[in-house]
Amino acid sequence: MRIVLFINSTLGIPLMVKLEEQRCLRGVVITDYSHEANHSAETFAKHKNIPLIQVDKEGLLNNLSEWLKQLDPEMGLCLTFPYRLPEAVLDIPTFGIVNCHFGALPEYAGPAPLFWILKNREKTVAMTFHQMTDVMDSGPELVKVAVPILAGENQGLLGARLSQLVAAQVPKVIEKVKAREKVLFVSVSATPLKRPNLQDLTIDWQQQDSEQIEALVNACNSSYGGAITYLRESMIWILEVSPAEVPNTALLAPGSIVHSSQQNGLFVLCSDYRYLKLNILKTSECILTGTKLAALGIRSGEKLGLGLLSPNQNLSLDKQ
Question: Is the backbone of residue 103 left (phi > 0), alpha (psi -120 to 50) or beta?
């Protein structure tokens, strides 16, 4: 099968390598974004002498159409490609273009499925392969595989693990598209979930319990830089937490730091009166551990969140 691959993130790199190893990769399409994934794809394609084209939204119809017609692929395969492909482009490969979406459709249609899946504390994530139409994340479903989500797995780790599993499903997808006249496909009508906004990314210490906060932290790591909260009225990002037992603590409000030490780190109280240890955090200046932040002077009784500043509290995190 002669395949053209459409990618726009590092999640597509393992699939690109695997298709080339199987001698079925005939071309690579990347976006006009300047980031590591596109640079890696360009380097790989050049090294392997594989045709590659970089396209923007305006050039999808004309430039991409002519390029595809010259390659004459049998099938296109998309993974994390953000642009809506016009019908004229979708019709060029003999068997059309198939999208791999990390999430069940239509429930998790949209550009950020892994965020919402982890935030919602789902136990599995579906790798959904569907024939593309000119409506994003809709079309006949071809193959769907449920993958268990590991305990404590964050967005970055989950995405990387899924990207390693995609290639194994490609033979099943090829079998399905070749039998398209014999198989009854059911179109998916999708109402996409939005990208998370500032409120979605921000911890609500008063309302969210410890499991919800841990899920949000995992959902935000790494694409969104961590779950947002505030310390001494400065925005910080929490990248990793873990459930903890903290004996003999004072009765404090949710969001309060109940224990702080250079040996053990920082522990915070949640609305369900369970505790989370703050393992890894980020400020506007650096990434650091909870133990390091404790060493910099964060003390028990301080509070996380806007409007939770203790009286007479120094606003600055800078101890230099």
Answer: left
* Tens digits of residue pLDDT in 39-88: 999 999 999 999 999 999 887 888 899 999 999 999 999 999 999 999 99
Judging by beta carbons within 10 Å of its beta carbon (0-12, 13-18, 19+), is residue 297 exposed, middle or buried?
Answer: exposed
What is each CA distance from 25 to 1, 5, 89, 166, 251, in whole angstroms? 8, 7, 18, 15, 62
Instruction: Report the alpha-carbon distance of residue 124 to residue 284 in Å, rounded.
Output: 34
The sign of the torsion formed by the CA atoms of 11, 53, 110, 208 equals: positive
Measure the CA–CA gap between 53 and 24, rounded to whole angstroms.
17
**Can you tell me whether residue 236 is helix, strand or coil?**
strand
SS3 content of the chain, % helix, strand, coil (to 5): 30, 25, 45
pLDDT tens-place string over residues 22-45: 999 999 999 999 999 999 999 999
Amino acid at position 190, single letter: A
Angle, helix 13-21 to helix 170-178, in steps of 10 degrees: 70
Phi and psi at residue 140, to the nearest 5°:
-60, 130
How far CA 137 is from CA of 11, 109, 258, 265, in Å, comes to 18, 6, 45, 43
The pairing of strands 25-31 and 234-244 is unpaired
